[in-house]
Design a protein that fits this description.
Strand content: under 5%
Number of domains: 1
Largest sheet: none
Number of strands: 0
Shape: elongated
Order of helices and strands: HHH
Structural class: mainly alpha
Radius of gyration: 13 Å
Length: 65
């Protein structure tokens, strides 16, 4: 999850989409001291939320192009 978080945070910074960046940063702060099981379950929820946001970004970009 930490590796995924690092990669997605880098990509999100390029997109300049504040809700996505905020969700990733909140999760990064949340990781400290959590059990691997908790990191995984919360991480899977984050992945789902990020996918929804990215789908919205993609739809908006399609309208512009």
């Amino acid at each position: 999850m930490r590796e995924w978080l690092h990669r997605v945070t880098g990509a999100a910074s390029v997109l300049q989409y504040p809700p996505l960046i905020e969700a990733l940063e909140n999760y990064r702060r949340y990781l400290a001291g959590k059990t691997p099981e908790r990191v995984r379950s919360e991480g899977l929820e984050l992945v789902s939320r990020c996918n929804v946001m990215l789908d919205g970004i993609e739809q908006q970009a399609a309208l512009l192009g």
